[in-house]
Specification:
This protein is α/β, with parallel strands linked by helices. It is built from 13 helices and 14 strands. Helices cover about 40% and strands about 20% of the residues. The strands form three sheets. A six-stranded parallel sheet has the order 2-1-3-4-5-11. Strands 7-6-8-9-10-12 form a six-stranded mixed sheet, sandwiched between helices. Strand 9, helix 12 and strand 10 form a beta-alpha-beta unit. The longest helix has 16 residues.
Length: about 350
Amino acid sequence: MNESKRRYTIKDIAEQSSVSLSTVSLVLNDNPRISQTTRARVLKTIERLGYQPNRMARALAWRHTRTLAILVPQLRHAFADVYFGEIVSGIYDRASGLGYKILLEVARNEFIDNKEYHQLYDQKFVDGMLFIGANSRHRFVSELTDGSRPFMLVNNYSKEFDLNYVVSNYRYGAWQAAQHLVRLGHKRIGFIGGGVGEIQTSQDILDAFKEAIEDSGIGPDPNLIVDGWLTEEGGMKAAEELLRRNPDVTAIFSLNDRMALGAIKKLNELGLRVPQDVAVVGFDDIPQASFAIPGLTTVHQPLYEIGKLACERMVELIHGKVSRVQEVMPIYLTVRESCGARLKDGVAAPTI
């Protein structure tokens, strides 16, 4: 046989790289368990032999891979974050029950620039992809709107692109929280945000908060809105900035619980009591919220259930049982001790 016309297999790659067949397969699947030295040796052999995976043979070998990809943004310790962890757990548990495996991916620059999201589908590594934490900078999602590659945003949605999604009713949750503080008598309510302008649901929370405040006859004040970068440290800095600008603030509404907990810590450091001096309300109802001192009033999101439902709907998309998924899940305010302050004659006092 003419060597230049020969079609090489992964067995050839394994032999000439002095590795096992499974190692070559893991390299082709970009599995992180493979050392960089071994990966480089295998890739060099692949390049030298001009190996091309036989995609048609793969497609004929199995119609579905029974594997789903979970994609998260390039954040520090994203998978360790309780928000992502709860949703991922819901997806994983439901996927296991449906006989599916999970592949975790990060939307790093190389992943996007090299269009690795296309390769995951086209090389039959996954049947579908669920993206948690998408924002406006992830423009590549526009390439996944035609339905040929099952794709879904989890707990977010896009006004710009027609994408599948399962999401909480963020607007109603924020409206409930703001109305609760207004009913307690607060008129100077600070807002700690994050991702506004980049994350649609963050924008929804801010918009609903403003609407609730204005509907209550309280005029908007830009000085009462501070960015906390969605972290505990950011929440601490934002709370300090809010009070520096507005010493008369009597309540703080935070776009997530992490920033709310950071705000409580800073208020304590400043010698202010929560809720007697400043009430604090968060959003998400992460497990730490109920263990905080005082317990954090927050908007409860069923993050685990959102993950489960998103997984179910993704499998339905894959098997053609549905053509579109755009579901909004109900959420509600969980009242604990941190908001138990009301205004009486202009002075914060405990609610009886």
